[in-house]
Write a structure and sequence with these properties.
binds iron/sulfur cluster, single chain, 3 domains, mainly alpha, Endonuclease III, domain 1
């Protein structure tokens, strides 16, 4: 199947079945989204949603963050991952927003990345969600799922994945495609053992196609070897049988 066809099926499927996917982080302003996304690095959205209500109450805007310090911010976010670093980032981010950007969240991806704690992924989330820019943030789920489905080829870095997705996805789907890929990766196309047996994308997924082909070849090879008396071939058959059994248990296919 051509790459362009996979993209078409991907967009058609999700547009029809998940027309309103959005972030699971809770926020009510661009400032709150920026804080929540910075906090969410290497942490779960569920955990972030537990700490942000009190955090946003105490620090409702960049000015209040700027007037505080990392020590106080830490007390509100101690249960998230890397709280020391994140507290320092938030304090620095508040100060820079006030001193350099007049308290406003910048819309430019490069300007956003000047803020402490903001890498390209976070900058793309803000640019795309807040400013409707043609950008897509690539996190671990987007990276993995795009690659498995076959939306990307030979893309070994998040930036390479981002470039291919921006090139092939219709511009008006970039923001929502980010959430489609994240949610699919979080609940079905999980990292260690993708749940292909319940996945609705098998018919255009490259990974599934490859796994099916490999398994069919292994089965054919095993069938041939079962007739042999050659000890070496019997050993090889044993290995193949184990691999087939593993695939069956993993329910990969
Ligand atoms: S078929 Fe499997 S590998 Fe492909 S997207 Fe679905 S879960 Fe992921």
């Amino acid at each position: 199947m051509l790459k362009a066809e996979r993209y078409r099926h991907f967009v058609e499927y999700f547009s029809k079945n998940q027309p309103s996917a959005e972030t699971e982080l809770h926020y009510s302003s661009p400032y709150e989204l920026l804080v929540a996304v910075i906090l969410s690095a290497q942490c779960t959205d569920k955990r972030i949603n537990q700490v942000t209500p009190a955090l946003f109450k105490r620090f409702p805007n960049a000015a209040s963050l700027a007037a505080s310090d990392a020590g106080e911010i830490f007390t509100y976010i101690r249960s998230v991952s890397y709280p020391n670093n994140k507290a320092k980032h938030l304090a620095g981010m508040g100060k820079m927003l006030m001193e350099v950007f007049g308290g406003e969240i910048p819309s430019d991806i490069n300007e956003l990345q000047r803020l402490p704690g903001v890498g390209r992924k976070t900058a793309n989330v803000i640019a795309s969600v807040v400013f409707d820019a043609p950008a897509i943030a690539v996190d671990t789920h987007v990276f993995r799922v795009s690659n498995r489905i076959g939306l990307t080829t030979r893309a070994t870095t998040p930036l390479a994945v981002e470039k291919q997705l921006v090139q092939y996805l219709p511009q008006n789907t970039l923001a929502i495609a980010h959430h489609w890929l994240i949610l699919h990766g979080r609940y079905i196309c999980v990292a260690r053992s993708p749940k292909c047996e319940i996945c609705p994308l098998t018919w255009f997924c490259k990974y599934y196609e490859q796994q099916n082909t490999e398994t069919a070849l292994l089965r054919a090879e095993a069938a041939k070897m079962r007739k042999t008396k050659d000890a070496k071939k019997k050993k090889a058959l044993n290995t193949i049988s184990k691999e087939l059994a593993k695939r069956s248990v993993d329910k990969d296919i």
